[in-house]
């Protein structure tokens, strides 16, 4: 028996990043990531207090992966142990066989391949262990770094909702992208070596 295949720590660890559960102390990093996301032109929301971020981190830490199909994980750099982002499955329909993911990497940690590897680790779990058939991503059309990331990973543009989201004073198209489980399996050998990318999908 291959004992390495039973090592869950290895399952969640790649060359660059390690995915782990959210801890209460992660709130400061998540607060920075939220501010960084605004710089990408995503939805404008009222400023959140430090206490709100603390509360949210505590809730995520307690909830963990109680719903095996919807969860959020911290993305930790293997080399430094620093939390560099977050990734998770935000919506899922087990009967229909699809889930929707999101990923964000802090501005100070982009262009190092963290997002690519974090998404690959998530997809491997959702396709191989949870047996989902399809992953979806919704990305604002002006978020070119995220669109490029998903194309490199093998996602296909499946449609575009015109003027679908109002943000920062104007309407934006919403790009719908998807990847099937067999497409991921066929290309997995190359995805871990995808070019470094920045932040991830809207949603």
Characterise this structure.
By secondary structure, the protein is an alpha+beta fold. Helices cover 33% and strands 30% of the residues. It contains 6 helices and 7 strands, in the order αβααβββαβαββα. Strands 1-2-3-4-5-7-6 form a 7-stranded mixed beta sheet, sandwiched between helices. Helix 4 links the parallel strand 4 and strand 5. Helix 2 packs across helix 3. The longest helix has 16 residues. The N terminus and C terminus are likely disordered.
Task: Briefly summarize what is shown.
Helices cover 33% and strands 30% of the residues.
Please describe the structure with a list of short key phrases separated by commas or semicolons:
single chain; 203 residues; alpha+beta; 7-stranded mixed beta sheet; 30% strand; disordered N terminus; disordered C terminus
| Pattern of helices and strands | HEHHEEEHEHEEH
Q: Radius of gyration, rounded? A: 16 Å
User: What is the topology, as strand order, of the major beta sheet?
Assistant: 1-2-3-4-5-7-6
Q: Number of helical runs?
A: 6
* Distance N to C terminus: 40 Å
Helix and strand composition category: alpha+beta
The fraction of residues assigned to DSSP E strands is: 25-35%
State the shape: globular
**Could you name the ranges where pLDDT drops below 50 across 5 or more consecutive residues?**
1-6, 191-203
- Share of helix among residues? 25-40%
Mean pLDDT: 86
What is the total tally of β strands? 7
The biggest beta sheet is recorded as:
7 strands, mixed
């Amino acid at each position: 028996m291959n004992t390495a295949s039973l090592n869950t720590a290895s399952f969640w660890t790649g060359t660059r990043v390690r995915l782990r559960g959210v801890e209460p102390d992660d709130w400061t990093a998540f607060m920075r990531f939220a501010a960084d996301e605004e710089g990408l032109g995503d939805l404008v929301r009222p400023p959140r207090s430090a206490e709100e971020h603390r509360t949210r981190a505590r809730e995520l830490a307690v909830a963990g992966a109680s719903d095996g199909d919807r969860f959020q994980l911290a993305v930790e750099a293997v080399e430094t142990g620093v939390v560099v982002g977050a990734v998770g499955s935000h919506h899922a329909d087990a009967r229909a066989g699809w889930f929707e993911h999101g990923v964000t990497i802090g501005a100070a940690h982009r262009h190092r391949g963290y997002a690519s590897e974090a998404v690959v680790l998530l997809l491997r779990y959702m396709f191989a262990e949870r047996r989902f058939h399809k992953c979806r991503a919704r990305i604002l059309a002006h978020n070119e770094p995220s669109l490029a990331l998903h194309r490199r990973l093998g996602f296909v543009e499946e449609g575009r909702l015109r003027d679908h989201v109002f943000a920062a004073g104007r309407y934006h198209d919403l790009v719908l992208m998807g990847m099937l489980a067999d497409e991921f399996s066929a290309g997995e050998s190359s995805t871990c070596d995808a070019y470094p990318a920045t932040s991830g999908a809207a949603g």
